[in-house]
Specification:
single chain; about 110 residues; mainly alpha; 434 Repressor (Amino-terminal Domain); about 60% helix; globular; Cro/C1-type_HTH; Helix-turn-helix domain-containing protein; DNA-binding; DNA binding
Amino acid sequence: MEVPKRPMINDALRLLRLYLGLSQNHLASALELSQSTISEIESGTKSVTMEVLERYSSKFDVRMSQLLFFAEELQDQPVKTKGKLIVAPRVLSLLELLAPKEIADAS
């Protein structure tokens, strides 16, 4: 049985948090969400809603289109739209290699 993979958007949001230098607690506070919600999103056990993406977008001045770039998956996509979808996981892999280390929560 194949293990389901975590959606790219979940990884992208985790990396965004790391690049911003925030702990899950600080991010949760900034977005007015619970820390457990942030944890579930980042681990892929909770789906990301448009409302949550809008919070990230407005709070951190990131365009929705930049976030949604990582929300699409390759499954069931026509060949002509797969180009950018093939690039997205590679971009994510590169960002993962360059990502700062996890922030320890000092609260």
